[in-house]
Structure to design on (865 residues):
């Protein structure tokens, strides 16, 4: 028998690196911008099993490496781009990249996702994450082409539009197939509403401003390496027929993007600075006219990587460069300005290049117009302020992206601008929560599951929290029964609650708490594995039949990544990520007092019941009366390092080691 | 020389570029089908179909890999079709030295679309199956073609000259050897695939 010789790799102790990793690359890029140092670091497969990937592992890195004292604009803040665990695998629609950092607007955890092609390309280049620390002196871009990773000067791209930057870089590098994520002028000037733009997608909610602060104009990535799949044959057999099913099914993808009937948004959402609901605004004449315009300016519908849905339209409006638009941003500027659709298409041609978020920016603009009309802002603040709403919006956008004059305050978002301007401007900040602009919804009767989602969500926008449980009850009992019988996405308990739910009534406290829990859990799964919410966590609320749900996702994850899961263990991982992100914000000072949806979100509130709801939700979550996860809960989820830190900092005390008894909670 | 008219089924993939959404599912599926072992990895860089995309010009053109050419071409024109500009490279099917398309990313061997007909062929090529938008359309078309009838005298002349040069035994040996593998290994692409099979 031949003598066995230990392999060289074993000798050198790098056997772990050599072990086959499925679905993930197994390496992160560590970019120290201050020193210009770049390192490729092997990651621990145990982290993947524990947090999956994407937002989950990014959360762990933020917890470990960013102390709570670190200010968002400090060089010690991190900016992390994470490919979802299933990015680049054949799993349909798993293309979302998570961006995680700390936001100067909220002072807390900031997170956004973008679709397109970036995450899969990063994986093919051989990396799961890009972790930026420090700050570059001058504007740079990061170039990644497989093993070649370089920081390069981006002086020539200063002030360029976001998509224009991508185009110029691909041309200059002769890499037409590279994927680029870039900021526009808004990000360069640290505007809080700045986005990161990539192909047909963008990331918002406080991540573009940090990219600008770190002086990163763009990331270019080209990857040609293989991604290995655990059980490829079985996976392909499973997904083969799904392309056509997903394409044909009306109950997945963006339900609104292809519709020309805009009644849902224009009649239900509030116009101006989240002020006025115009019921009956919509009519057939508008529908015909608006549809004709959309058809005229649309080049085509486009999709994201490996997804048969086409939720993004490529638009060329006369006189504007081509841009991409999705979802309700088709209307946000028009409604904020009390204008029509043509105005929205026109201004998006400007704001997309500047890299401005289509949800919060319109509210900031409408807020400024309101202040002017109320005499709080004057002609001295807004020299030469035009007369029409249309021109005023364009005027304000230019001031904001350059932080010129009053634009400097407005660039900090409604909450901070109101306080910087003063003179009663605070009263006009009526639609922000945790210092962040919320969707402009002003409704009648308080809705308790929604109350809980708004109050306790860490993701700043309700669209990132809601989505699995239907928004409305079905009046006809027979229809309801039929719906429930076909509702394969729902765990049994929700079927019972849905059957019991009559229109215009409130679900029980127990049901509300569970609905909130289910909705957020599904998002935490998507955001770690990179599947699109339109096929999954956001989609069940309309129609109840998302292609991905808690019962089939374990199969996809296990076939692609080789991690064996069942619905319960997947739910637990999502709960772990949810608690870890919660803990990051708790350590940053988040407490019960912050968990208040905007006062006027509902006309009819029920403070007593709201309190009961919040108490019940905290208890259900294993959190104490301040919304802090208890030691028991944290330890049960394997987050002992969090409870230890909380005890050390006095955030939890020894008495709270046991779940709070009812009387303690009062 | 006589000409004979024959009918033949031609398989093709028609492209409706107005329907392409640029999702590149075709690239992923193609690369996985041709991976060894089959589906063992998915890597669009090794796909035999590529969507040539220029977002700002609204150009989305799926192109299937054609033949290999060792030399670059001289024509790099820009065509304007329906008020849109297309670069010539953007719809050329050739694997050529001046660009990275249609080459295996690790071996750099050139790749060519085989309509998913390699071992255990598929009824419909994978790229068409996964194309939800209907931009790729699989078609079987009966076509008539003229074929040259072999002229024994011409073959005689050719073989005689070879026999003069190498001797009759060498010709017989060569024919015997070729008949075992013919027609499988006549193109460079199929040879490369064979090599991979042995791994």
């Amino acid at each position: 028998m031949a003598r066995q010789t230990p392999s060289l790799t074993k000798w050198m102790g790098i056997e772990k690196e050599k072990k086959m990793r499925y679905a993930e690359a197994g390496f992160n890029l560590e970019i120290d911008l201050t020193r210009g140092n770049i390192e490729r670091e092997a990651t621990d497969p145990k982290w993947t099993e524990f947090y999956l990937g994407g937002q989950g592992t990014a959360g762990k890195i933020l917890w470990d490496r960013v102390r709570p004292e670190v200010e968002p604009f400090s060089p010690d803040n991190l900016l992390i781009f994470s490919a979802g665990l299933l990015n680049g695998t054949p799993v349909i629609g798993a293309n979302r990249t998570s961006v995680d950092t700390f936001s100067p607007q909220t002072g807390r955890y900031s997170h956004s996702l973008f679709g397109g092609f970036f995450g899969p390309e990063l994986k093919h280049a051989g990396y799961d994450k890009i972790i930026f620390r420090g700050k570059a002196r001058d504007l740079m871009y990061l170039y990644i082409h497989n093993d070649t990773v370089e920081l390069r000067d981006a002086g020539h791209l200063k002030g360029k539009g976001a998509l224009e930057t991508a185009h110029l870089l691909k041309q200059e590098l002769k890499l037409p197939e590279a994927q680029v994520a870039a900021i526009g002028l808004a990000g360069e000037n640290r505007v809080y509403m700045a986005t990161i733009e990539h192909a047909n997608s963008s990331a918002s909610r406080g991540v573009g401003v940090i990219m600008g602060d770190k002086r990163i104009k763009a990331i270019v990535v080209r990857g040609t390496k293989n991604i290995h799949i655990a059980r490829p044959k079985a996976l392909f057999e499973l997904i083969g027929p799904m392309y056509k099913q997903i394409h044909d099914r009306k109950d997945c993808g963006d339900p609104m993007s292809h519709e020309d009937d805009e009644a849902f948004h224009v009649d239900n959402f509030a116009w101006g600075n989240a002020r006025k609901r115009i019921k009956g605004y919509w009519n057939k004449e508008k529908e015909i006219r608006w549809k004709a315009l959309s058809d005229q300016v649309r080049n085509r519908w486009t999709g994201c990587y490996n997804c048969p849905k086409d939720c993004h339209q490529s638009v060329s409006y006369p006189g504007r460069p081509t841009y991409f638009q999705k979802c309700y941003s088709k209307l946000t500027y028009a409604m904020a300005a009390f204008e029509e659709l043509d105005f929205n298409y026109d201004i998006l041609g400007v704001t997309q290049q500047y890299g401005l978020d289509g949800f919060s920016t319109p509210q900031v603009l409408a807020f400024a117009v309101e202040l002017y009309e109320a005499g709080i802002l004057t002609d001295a603040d807004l020299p030469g302020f035009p007369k029409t709403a249309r021109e005023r919006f364009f005027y304000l956008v230019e001031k904001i992206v350059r932080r010129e004059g009053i634009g400097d305050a407005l660039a900090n978002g409604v909450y901070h601008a109101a306080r910087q301007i003063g003179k009663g401007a605070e009263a006009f900040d009526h639609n922000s929560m945790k210092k962040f602009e919320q969707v402009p919804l002003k409704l009648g009767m308080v809705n308790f599951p929604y109350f809980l989602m708004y109050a306790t969500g860490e993701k700043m926008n309700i669209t990132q929290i809601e989505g699995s449980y239907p928004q409305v009850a079905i009046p006809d009992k027979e229809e309801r029964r039929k719906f429930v019988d076909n509702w394969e996405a729902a765990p049994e308990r929700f079927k019972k609650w849905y059957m019991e739910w009559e229109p215009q009534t409130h679900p029980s406290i127990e049901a509300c708490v569970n609905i909130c829990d289910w909705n957020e859990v599904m998002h935490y799964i998507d955001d770690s594995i990179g599947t699109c919410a339109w096929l999954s966590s956001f989609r069940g609320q309309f129609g109840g039949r998302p292609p991905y749900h808690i019962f089939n996702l374990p199969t996809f994850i296990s076939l692609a990544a080789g991690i064996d899961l069942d619905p319960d263990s997947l739910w637990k991982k999502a709960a772990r990520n949810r608690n870890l992100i919660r803990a990051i914000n708790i350590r940053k000072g988040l407490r019960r007092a912050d968990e208040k949806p905007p006062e006027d979100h509902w006309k009819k509130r029920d403070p007593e019941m709201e309190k009961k709801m919040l108490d019940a939700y905290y208890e259900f979550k294993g959190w104490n009366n301040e919304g802090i996860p208890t030691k028991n809960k944290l330890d049960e989820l394997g987050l002992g390092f969090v409870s230890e830190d909380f005890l050390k900092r006095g955030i939890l005390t020894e008495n709270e080691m046991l779940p709070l008894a009812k009387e303690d909670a009062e | 020389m006589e000409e004979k008219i024959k009918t033949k089924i031609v398989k093709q993939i028609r492209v409706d570029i107005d329907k392409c959404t640029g999702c590149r599912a075709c690239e992923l599926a193609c690369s996985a089908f041709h991976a060894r072992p089959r589906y063992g990895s998915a890597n669009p860089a090794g796909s035999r179909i590529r969507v040539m995309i220029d977002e700002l010009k609204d150009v989305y053109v799926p192109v299937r890999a054609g033949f290999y050419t060792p030399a670059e071409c001289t024509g790099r024109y820009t065509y304007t079709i329906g008020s849109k500009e297309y670069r010539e490279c953007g719809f050329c099917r050739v694997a050529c030295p001046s660009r990275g398309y249609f080459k295996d990313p690790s071996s750099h061997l050139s790749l060519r679309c085989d309509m998913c007909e390699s071992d255990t062929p598929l009824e419909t090529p994978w790229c068409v199956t996964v194309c939800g938008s209907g931009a790729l359309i699989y078609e079987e078309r009966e076509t008539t073609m003229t074929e040259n009838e072999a002229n024994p005298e011409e073959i005689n002349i050719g073989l005689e000259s070879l026999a003069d040069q190498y001797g009759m035994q060498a010709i017989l040996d060569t024919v015997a050897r070729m008949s075992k593998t013919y027609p499988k290994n006549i193109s460079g692409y199929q040879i490369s695939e064979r090599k991979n099979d042995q791994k």
